[in-house]
Amino acid sequence: MSQHSPRPRSPGEGAWGCEHSLTAPEVGTIEAWCLDYISAEEVAAKCSPGEPPALFDGYYAPDLAVCSAMAPGRGVGLRVQERAERIPRPAALREASARAKLLHVFMHHEIQAAELSAWAILRFPDAPAEFRRGLLGILDDEARHAQMYLGRVRELGSQYGDFAVRDWFWEKARHCTTPLQYTALMGLGFEGANIDHAARFERQLRDVNDERSADLVGQVGREEVSHVRFASRWFAEWTGEAEGDGPDYDRWCEALPPPLTPAVFKGDPVQVERRARAGLSRSFLGRLMSEGKVRGTTQKSPRRAGIDGSGNDSDSELCRE
Fold it and tell me: What was the pLDDT predicted at 317?
């Protein structure tokens, strides 16, 4: 059975609510569903998007200027800032409000990752259908993670929107121009780093006897392994690596959107075993671990290291430590 909607339409049919127009996705297709998901403003829609349609729109052609300028839907009460607040330090996590703030950061990361899976489906219509369907599965996982974080944030006495957020992932990912670049950034980069960060924050939360939050962060970190494995598989395939070798480190560095560097995408410590299960070779991981910290001697300029001089906000900080 074909994986595409059969009905052709005229170029220019529809628009995305901005100056640029494009062929609108066919109603009832995966692309239309993805566009609706990105545009949604209510947190319930972000966390529980429902079942996507079965078919891709075989005639959909994105306007690339629209894709690079696209912004996700954000509710009126959500404060989106250029610099988010610092994440709570370990000692502060004794307070429920601080733990809620930390999980709120993680929740917004998951929402962005889900939205950007939808964005990549729209942006790269010529990518293999298997890859694009894989992104739908990742979207579902990220939305489920966001829902779990939302529930725990509420148990801790807060709501989504009580803390300012930054659309850090969107700032970087919407400028990707190829599936290879997107996979390098989101899968091998941000999600790879989250394997490290999740392990660290799970320990910090156990140290303050918040077992429920620790279990949640640990679960999300473990489930990121399959997302990184997905990225590893496609990156290696697209760069011609031998089966089983995993991504080439130099090719990954080349594919990262400038000015980002590998030093941005590791935690302390790097979770070698988990990342290895995600398809990264020991050679790859050895070179990643040898990268200097963003503010260390081997990374002389914070701007060149990919934090764009943005200071100690929560999002760039997670990708820096």
Answer: 55
